[in-house]
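Changelog-linked ticket: protoporphyrin IX containing FE example.
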Amino acid sequence: MEFFYMSLLGLFVSSVFFSLNFIFYKNKSSSSGTLPPGKTGWPVVGETLEFLTTGWKGYPEKFIYDRMAKYSSKVFRTHLLGEKAAVFCGAAGNKFLFSNENKLVQAWWPASFDKVFPSSNQTSSKEEAIKMRKMLPNFLKPEALQRYIGIMDHIAQRHFADDWENKNEIVVFPLAKKFTFWLACRLFVSVEDPNHVAKFADPFDLLASGLISLPIDLPGTPFNRAIKASNFIRKELVAIIKQRKLDLAEGKASPTQDILSHMLLTSDENGKFMHELDIADKILGLLIGGHDTASSACTFVIKFLAELPEVYEGVYKEQIEIAKAKSPGELLNWEDIKKMKYSWNVACEVMRLAPPLQGAFREAITDFIYNGFEIPKGWKLYWSANSTHRNPEFFPEPLKFDPSRFDGSGPAPYTFVPFGGGPRMCPGKEYARLEILVFMHHLVRRFKWEKIIPDEKIVVNPMPIPAKGLPVRLYPHTA
Ligand code: HEM
């Protein structure tokens, strides 16, 4: 199947190359000399293949660092996903993009996203994201988040009892995904029954992998399967929404129990409530964005702790002290989370070296000058976590795992950006912090572990994961 897609791609690239050669050279000669340095690669596909394949080989930073060295450490020109693009690098590049949202730039997603996430009311994913941002703070505000800690603890206990205990060997990534997905289903739509959760899990996998595939909508392609999966999940969500409406009307559900109740009961500035399909779309987006990222982070926590016994010991000591101070059956709470300082430093260092999202796109909404170079309106602009996270200018000895980088005031502004920055910074950051810490608490309390494949390859597509899912041998603590 893979061969089929590669051949299709090859055919596509060469036919486009010959038919558009003329246009390409015409465009090239008309461009002004003040554009950022760089090359635009092949017509239409540009440098997309290099961009993607460095990730597939496990070195997404190579695409960025090669070009920073060759052209400019500040900004370089390229051509990605069919679009003229510039990659903004370093802390200054991050700062510029993050602080010019809606002034010079705005968020941008490839057109394929709108096909997989068709909005029920025919607006674009861009407009829907703006609505989503307005909706989320209530669900993710500190008081609400503090309520979720006990629920996260309860789900984590069930998860570890069902899937980890009494096993000698497990594969980490699918289990980490199972955990974060179960949590998201419980906290977003109050679906807690593992069988009901499992019914969603497969279509979600199809959806996630189709989103980043070639956007070819033919029977059997990953993109086509993603569209079908998206339709299936939306139907299931609508059924849940209809039931919830009844339950709310009959007083069987609470207005504050999850984001679904919140969306059903909140009107916009004109007093209009959201349509059922609209709510289904929003929840679908949240479920996608909110569980794959955190499961990648949890997986890499396990990988690094297996490789670094002294770091494991530090996390173990911190978590065991917290556990000892609890009475039997008492759930974790906000006070406990505040004590998990070293564990969070470790998680941050994990996300510095293996950021779950590599970066994100913006679109220039006007012509502007950056660093002396012209950025034309309509160009797509990319910020990349890797341009700072592995840069010795900001993180000396960048490949060394050193959680103390996050002591005190931590890294310099705009250098550590796993959650982005500015007005579009990930709204789920605190939620993610809680779920990762609760996961680490249960993990180290129960086990030590070792990797079964010592030098397992990492694949970044688009999230980093060990190629075989990180199989480990578990050693339960005896005391
Ligand atoms: C370790 C876990 C996570 C990481 C590393 C992460 C990272 C990011 C990043 C880098 C962005 C893009 C910012 C940009 O466009 O510049 C983003 C956006 C977003 N994230 Fe997260 N995220 C995580 C978990 C979550 C969770 C748990 C949720 C939901 C509860 C969530 C919801 C969102 C949403 C809705 C957006 C879009 C915001 C917008 O477009 O304005 N994320 N995230």
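Closing comment: Example verified and attached. Residues 213 and 461 are 9 Å apart (CA to CA). Confidence is low (pLDDT under 50) at residues 1-31.
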